[in-house]
Structure formats: C-alpha cells, structure tokens
Design a protein that fits this description.
Layout: H1 2-51, H2 56-76, H3 103-106, H4 111-160
Length: about 160
C-alpha cells in the first residue's frame, strides 16, 4: 500500500511541476504576441505619422492595439492572474505543498497516511491552478485575436490610402 501511495504522491508532484512549466509557456507566448503586435503597430503607424493624418481604420487599429494590451498585460504580470485584477496572496499560483502543514499530524499518522494527505493537498492545488490556467489561456487567446483584428484594420487603412 505504501508503494502505491508514494507513487501517487510523486505523480501529483510531477503534475504540479509540469503545470508550472505550462504557465510559464503561456506567459512566454503572450510575450511573443505582444512583441509581434508592437512591431506591427510600429511599422503600420509610422506610415500614418509620416502622412500626418489618420483614417478611421488607422484609429480603430490603434484603439485595438491598446484594448488588446489589457488582457495581454494581465497574463504577463505575475500579480495580475489572468483576470485583470489583483488577487490576494492565498489565491496565487501554488505549485508546492508546504509539508510543514503536516507537522501536527506526524505523531498521529503513519507514513502512508501522511503521504496520502499530502497527495490530496497536491491534487487540490493542481485543480485550483487548473482553473487559473484556463483563464490565462483564454486571456492570451483574446489578446491574439484582438491583435489580429488590429492588423486587419491596418490593412483596411492602407487599402483606403491613409
């Protein structure tokens, strides 16, 4: 029984570690989206600045750029957890269970029971983080879609001639 419980604990710990890597990956992708949008906006906007007059499409593109920045920045900043608002400390990402929380139970429980309790806590952290992860991915996708719309506005502005 102890081997199974120990294996479950190790698997739960690995799942949390993998989840942390996934969060970092989503944030990296959001950074790439912002960088690409910034480069595109700089490229397209330079023509508008050179002409001195912006069309309605160009203005829409600039508005889209700033609107898309809201979800993108909320993904990139660690204290803004994908929802665009500051969260309290107890609701932040957690990828490790502090085993010190089990100290009181050490004298009352067997090693197998302790590992099982720690595994259950790791599982709770995983599912709590998973909900936040879904929001992070959604905000990143929203930013990418708005940035794509922005580029469409720029092309419409170019086609219109301003």
């Amino acid at each position: 029984m102890t081997d199974i419980v120990e294996l479950a604990y190790k698997e739960a710990a690995v799942a949390l570690s993998t989840q942390q890597e996934a969060v970092d990956s989503v944030r990296d992708r959001a950074g790439v989206v912002v960088a690409a949008a910034t480069a595109a906006t700089g490229f397209f906007a330079s023509g508008v600045v050179a002409e001195g007059e912006a069309s309605g499409w160009a203005l829409l593109a600039m508005v889209a750029f700033f609107v898309a920045g809201i979800p993108a920045v909320s993904v990139l900043l660690p204290f803004l957890e994908g929802g665009g608002y500051v969260r309290v400390a107890r609701q932040r990402w957690q990828f490790r269970y502090p085993l010190s929380d089990l100290r009181e139970e050490v004298s009352r429980k067997s090693e197998s029971e302790l590992l099982q309790a720690a595994t259950e806590e790791l599982e709770k952290l995983y599912y709590s983080n998973q909900d936040r992860m879904k929001k992070l991915v959604s905000w990143t996708r929203l930013a990418a879609v708005i940035y794509a719309v922005e580029v469409g506005f720029w092309f419409a502005s170019i086609r219109q001639g301003g």
